[in-house]
Predict the structure.
Amino acid sequence: MIAQIFSRFVLACGVMTFLIVNCNSVSAQTGNFDFLNITGSGNVIDFSPTETYSFSQFVNQETFDVDAMEISAFSVDRYTRTDTLRLAEDGVGIGVIPEHPLDIYASNDTTFSDARIVLENYFPDDVEASTMLRMKNSGPVRFEMKNTDTGRVWTFVADNNGQFQIRQNGSGTASFAIRDNGRFAFNYAGISQMILQANGNLRINGTLTELSDRETKSNLVAVDRQETLEKVVELPISQWSYKKDKGQIQHLGPMAQDFHQAFGLGEDEKGISTLDTSGVALAAIQGLYEQVQEKDARIEVLEQKLAEQTESTSDRIARLESIVESLIEK
């Protein structure tokens, strides 16, 4: 089978050589389009025993060249670019002489403004399971994105420590890291600003701000502060630990079920929003303040009455003393 293929290849080469050597031009046409057109002076296609294999076309400063004697093994050149396609010993260049194993360059050409590289899969059997891009290395794997206007570079690295990082190159910059133990961290200037641990604990090196903008809210209902205070007083409060912490970390607060039953707040009875606990606490404080204000008012009234009674008693005592002194003088 291989011998037959080889013999056919040799025959084809011989025919092509015959055409080239004996013909100045060979063409075949359908309609107005050429699907085979071989022209030129000298050899356009050459398979010679000197290990030089050439497909050459030199017309109007455009070249199509395959030549083992040239710098590139395969090149397609256009007058408007240095190299449209160049397969060289040191790499492949598209629109540029390659400086990397694969080098793709475009300047202000808007033909490919959407994307330079597109990977597409249209096999329905493996659309979900197929790997569209795989990068392998004997050590850490990394790729970079650079904004040439700002000079800012973001690097994606899978290192040898079981960690995937996204970091901005330079001093005092930000980075994200995901470890194989499930921990996620955000760092800035070498300091951990946020750590999300695999057990769900979140630590932040700053304040926590929750959305509470009036413009984002609806169904606003006034709260009965006294009723809220009574519910807070009756709400069971315990000191406890999460089972996953095995009693090593202590907390204090209500059970989510009790809190949800008392106030009906939150998404479900499995968790408590800090925004809700703050609101309940503030309403209860206002309710307590109302009670204090009411009692202060009652005390003020009683003190006024007592002052009036005291004044009346003093007057009576003064009159009695005056009467006694009058009797004594007599």
